[in-house]
Amino acid sequence: MSTIVFIDTRGEKIPKAAQEAVTFASQLGGNVTAVTFGDGQALESLGAQGASKVIVARGVKVVEGQQLTKLVCDIAQKENANTIVCVNDATGKAVAPRVAARLKAGHVAGVTAMPEGGLFRRNVFSGKARAFVEVSSAVKVLSLSPNSIPVAKGDGTATVEDYSGDLGTARITVKEVRKAGSGIPLPEAERVVSAGRGLKGPENWAGVEELADILNAATACSRPVADMHWRPHHEHVGQTGVAIRPNLYIAIGISGAIQHLAGVNQSKVICVINNDPEAPFFKAADYGIVGDAFEVLPKLIEAAKKLNDER
Amino acid sequence: MKILVLLSQVPDTTARIAFTNDNTQYDASGVIFIVNPYDEWYALVRALELKEATGAGSVTTLTVGGADTDATIRKGLAIGADEAVRVDAQPTDAMQVAQQIAAYAKDKGFDLILAGKETIDHNGGQVGAMVAELLDLPYVPLASKLDVAGTAATVERDVPGGVEVLEVALPLVIGASKGMAEQRIPNMRGIMAARTKPLNVVPAAASEDVAKTVKFELPPAKGAVKMIPAEDAGQLIQLLHSEAKVI
User: Fold this and answer.
1) Are the C-beta atoms of residues B153 and B147 closer than 8 Å to each other?
2) A to B CB pairs, distance under 8 Å
3) Terminal Cα-to-Cα distance of chain A (whole angstroms)
4) From the candidates B123, B180, B226, which should be mutated to test the interface with A, based on the most A CB atoms within 10 A?
5) Alpha-carbon torsion A13, A19, A21, A22, what sign?
6) pLDDT range class, residue B220, cuts 50, 70, 90
7) Which of residues 146-175 of B touch A (CB under 8 A)?
8) CB-based contacts of A213: which residues, under 8 Å, 6+ apart?
9) % of chain A residues with pLDDT over 70
10) What's B43's DSSP letter?
């Protein structure tokens, strides 16, 4: 059995989601070859998650779905791979379904656990239910949801090879990249501090940002807040925004409409702070505080600072 | 410009989620179905805006489904699409749906194929990319802005930590996400006009079944919420550290 893992390793550090995907692939069993592109550093360290070899197409710098599909399919064929693992993120979404269509392989988007009895688990109905998928094709394409499995830390080292094949001309050109602050990207954040209309105006977000900063968390918001342009759209979590599954989700001044819950109910621990004891969000919470956000937030910030100082 | 918009039918966002037949099927009894919000609010409305800006071209919607999707398809026409096509096949898997769409679209000369970034029921986000691969076209997922000048499109794509501005030659396939357009509510004139606009039903093409959902389950119920008095709010941080062990 041979498995290909396609990951995005651009930048100085190998993203956690990429390490999770390699871990997932090696736990499926068999030989694991990681495939990546761009300027990635320390790729041999993917051996710690079980990759025996990393093949890198240094010439491809951006997510060009067609070139990357060709890359993955070419290596899958050479390695005689029967499983191709991707990450269900912006890069994976541009490549994994294409690879599946090209190879006429069944694709499971957003796998959330190791397979059980040959079935792959994924979330459907925006996290309100789970589905178990059977893949009947000889080759399987599996896109793993970030934060689904713990990263393995072995002591292996992978060999690193440059890809030398021809991937054709890029049809997508990146003209500009606009960074949205230095914050942690929401979909892969382990902790998220989120706030809603209860904060009354965009000028009151300093406390939310401060708490997020101390907890090393990403900031998020509810749909009305994004619609009123208090916060950027990419911070909107919920059914029609980003769906997230962090270890910790703190919701301040968000009532918890069903559409919001759908995007966050996969979080491991949910804390709800709301001045309305009848807010539906409390029913989905692990911890709750009924109180005014402007009184509770300073107390949380103070306690979090104290905890950081003690560590 | 000739634009194709892929419309899916999904349960309403507030619909109860339950399953029948030994948890193998979604229980649709009493459920109201709507156009997938990403398809309607962003893909369709942006397609109409692009057509309006040039004053020429056409917007066609395409749905893979049975006759039970016709009311949903009419909604797209009421919002402003010129014509609708329904491929007469029950959707089973993204690959099967993509093969149906590609079979229809391959000789039609569409400059743009727009879909929502995902459906709110299956959340796969696969069909647009698969259609693009089957038609040998570029595909941009998670696109939050789309402009067309001549034969070139400028697309903004949401990526971790920011936004990429891309340039791509037409034709191409787009997965539309929030930000691309604002929802349009159909007016009475649109609803009346939709009744007489063409809804062409075409037979299903050959397709493959390579993946299948064999069962569903509801997530385990949450335990009781632990309430902390507001005056001791700092205690929450302690509990998150010592009890929940998440900070």
Assistant:
1) yes
2) 274
3) 45
4) B123
5) positive
6) confident
7) 154, 157-169, 175
8) none
9) 99
10) I
Q: What are phi and psi of B89, to 5 degrees?
A: -150, 145
Alpha-carbon gap, residue A178 to A258, rounded angstroms: 32
Residues lower than pLDDT 70 in chain A? 180-183
Dist. CA B26–CA A236, nearest whole Å: 28
Cα gap B224→A91, rounded to integer Å: 38
Kind and range of the H or E run holding B103: helix B94-105
Amino acid code (one letter) for A89: D
CA distance A137 to B234: 53
Chain A residue nearest residue B132, CA to CA: A98
Q: Which residues contact B231 (CB under 8 A, 6 or more apart)?
A: none
The ipTM is 0.94
Whether B46 contacts B175, CB under 8 Å? no
CB A99 within 8 A of CB A139: no
- Residue B54 is which amino acid? T
Q: How far apart are CA B103 and CA B116, in angstroms?
A: 20
CA distances from B28 to B10, B16, B43 (A): 10, 9, 26
Nearest CA in chain A to B145: A233
pLDDT tens-place string over residues B86-135: 999 999 999 999 999 999 999 999 999 999 999 999 999 999 999 999 99
Q: Is A245 within 8 Å of A187 (Cβ atoms)?
A: no
Beta bridge partners of A273: A252, A289
Task: State the best of A102, A172, A222, A242 to mutate against chain B, taking most chain B CBs within 10 Å.
Answer: A172
How many CB atoms lie under 10 A from the CB of residue A122? 25
Residues 232 through 261 of chain A touching chain B, CB cutoff 8 Å: 233-234, 236, 239-241, 243, 247-248, 258-259
Please list the residues that pair with B145 across neighbouring strands: B156
Query: Which residues lie across from B154 on neighbouring strands?
Result: B147, B167
User: Chain A contacts of B123, Cβ < 8 Å?
Assistant: 109-110, 122-126, 243
Please give the pLDDT value at position B72: 96
Record the pTM. Answer: 0.91
- Helix B127-134 and helix B94-105, axial crossing angle in degrees, nearest 10: 40
